[in-house]
Amino acid sequence: MLLLYRALLKIHTTYQFMIQKIYLKICLSKGLKVGKNVRFVEVPQFGTECFLIEIGDDTTFSNNVRFVNHDGGQNALHFFDEYKDVRTFGRIKIGKQCLIGADTTIMLGVEMGDNCVLGAGSILTSSMPSGTVYAGVPAKYICTIKEYGDKLLANNVIYPRELEQDRAKLEAYIKEHLPHAYKPVKK
């Protein structure tokens, strides 16, 4: 049974990868601009106007990222004569060396500067200056990229880096040696 499950999972994963690859090629053919060394954990949902999106070099996207480059809410207004002709679109520009967290939405008309982090679960409704970290709904300024780096460095997990060459050994080491320390409750 386990063998069947693994086979089905492999087929499903391969199928999803192929669909994402085809979708990305279609978006690129329509005018989506993607820089060099852009990494997708999962290809984002670029929306119907992918030609309005520009992504800088060395940017990483986590899973379930969505771009919204038009305002679909306008359709609810077309029943009113004064709003029949309303159409709203906006460009989206992502800078170089950015990280877009999982389950994020990037709204129309925003620009993300270079060296930015957009936290998981965020909805970006305004532009981000270079070198900043934003998170939340709507996404708000959290700290500078330097402050974020210092915070990560303070919480750095120390382990023999040569274990990174063998994922199974790395996982076993972390499982055994990572302390059972948890963040305190916020008051």
Automatic annotation (TrEMBL):
CDD domains: LbH_MAT_like (cd04647). It comes from the Bacteria. Gene3D superfamilies: Hexapeptide repeat proteins. InterPro entries: Hexapep (IPR001451), Trans_hexapeptide_repeat (IPR050179), Trimer_LpxA-like_sf (IPR011004). Belongs to the transferase hexapeptide repeat family. This is Acetyltransferase-like isoleucine patch superfamily enzyme. It comes from Chryseobacterium camelliae.
